[in-house]
UniProtKB/TrEMBL annotation:
EC number: 4.1.3.4
Protein name, entry field: hydroxymethylglutaryl-CoA lyase
Domain Pyruvate carboxyltransferase: 40-307
UniProtKB keywords: Lyase, Metal-binding
């Protein structure tokens, strides 16, 4: 740990160049709204956000099998697990085993949630190449989720980002509760923009704006994106929707109008946050992909394969598939 801290200063210099390399490779993929074929990127968060709240422990082999299957669908980013306090999130207690045992396909990124330096150290030992840090726009949620205030968390994340980047590890940044919080109610978009700018400046290659409890509508989401776009280039913005109020696809559609091209989704609509009452499933990846393909966006994802895996994991969890597109297509195919 002491070793990690001592390299923190030179790390900020290295950070800049590593971040720029990541930017260059992302730019070549044209996630922005500009010219060329219409492209969008999906960040599959099912293995982490989708599973973290499951009460019954899912055997590690099933998690690994699930991720290995997802790796063959054309997805370019699969958020694999988290390295956090195992007493608080017991479902992710096998995070290190999962990340070390999956088959990491070339061209696929496997980010892992990391909240602090101690856990970054564990991630580095496990040869993790991509991490996600997770801040919040709500003080209360920040304290409940990561046991510190927003300013303390940003201070902590600066160290994590510096050291991660100095090891060549790319860093994605989340902001939870971007329009509403289960404890504080409405959240100001100006506050979200301030935090987004800080995460971006500390070296996050992408800022994922999370509507943790799914209260956003195209009205509140567009205001929030407008404000964040002022301080973070739109091609570095991702939207992470939960579908609690059935608004997720409408919100994604409206963010497309603002130039956002990166969307987090959870296969079969799995998900929920242990620290946010009312955080139900994430928007189903299959539904996002169905909509994007229908609008002429290329995602590189084979939807039929994704649907098979959504059905597989739903069976393993003994629950019905939460994707409407998957249900409709599976029904049509079976008749
Ligand atoms: C952030 C901390 C660590 C701060 O926790 P802390 O108490 O401030 O710091 P700590 O590092 O001293 O850790 C406390 C205890 O946890 C243990 N610990 C710590 N890490 C590990 C580990 N890997 N394996 C085993 N033990 C671990 C550590 O050893 C210690 O044990 P003690 O000394 O008390 O016996 C804690 O609050 C925590 O882990 N919180 C869980 C956060 C979390 O996973 N939240 C859910 C994901 S975020 C989310 O879902 C939102 C998102 C991203 O999807 C977007 C959205 O929709 O909003």
């Amino acid at each position: 740990m002491v070793g990690l801290r001592t390299i923190s200063q030179s790390a900020s210099r290295v950070r800049k160049s590593v971040t720029n390399v990541r930017y260059a490779s992302m730019r070549s993929q044209n996630w922005g709204p500009h010219t060329g074929p219409k492209k969008a990127k999906i960040v599959e968060v099912g293995p982490r956000d989708g599973l973290q709240n499951e009460k019954k422990f899912i055997p590690t082999d099933i998690k690994i099998n699930f991720i290995n299957k997802l790796s063959k669908t054309g997805l370019k980013v699969i958020e694999t697990t988290s390295i956090v306090n195992t007493k608080l999130v017991p479902q992710m207690a096998d995070g290190i085993e999962v990340i070390t045992k999956i088959n990491r396909e070339p061209g696929v990124e496997y980010p892992v949630l990391v909240p602090n330096l101690k856990n970054l150290e564990r991630a580095i030992k496990a040869d993790v190449k991509d991490i996600a840090i997770f801040a919040s726009a709500s003080e209360e949620f920040s304290k409940k989720n990561i046991n510190c205030s927003i300013p303390e968390s940003l201070h902590r994340f600066q160290d994590v980002a510096d050291i991660a980047n100095s090891h060549g590890i790319a860093v994605r940044g989340y902001i939870s509760c971007v329009v509403g919080c289960p404890y504080e109610g409405t959240i100001s978009s100006a506050k979200v923009a301030t935090i987004a700018e800080k995460l971006y400046k500390m070296g996050c290659y992408e800022i994922s704006l999370a509507d943790t409890i799914g209260v956003g509508t195209p009205g509140s989401i567009s205001k929030m994106i407008e404000d964040v776009k002022e301080v973070v280039p739109v091609e570095r913005i991702a939207l992470h929707c939960h579908d609690t109020y059935g608004q997720a696809l409408a919100n994604i559609y409206c963010s497309l109008e603002y130039g956002v091209r990166v969307f987090d989704g959870s296969i079969a609509g799995l998900g929920g946050c242990p620290f946010a009452k009312g955080a139900t499933g994430n928007v189903a990846t299959e539904d996002i992909v169905y909509m994007l393909h229908g609008m002429g966006y290329e995602t590189g994802i084979q939807l039929p394969e994704l649907i098979k895996i959504g059905n597989y994991i739903s069976q393993q969890l003994n629950r019905s598939n939460g994707s409407k597109a998957a249900l409709a297509i599976s029904l049509k195919d079976s008749t």
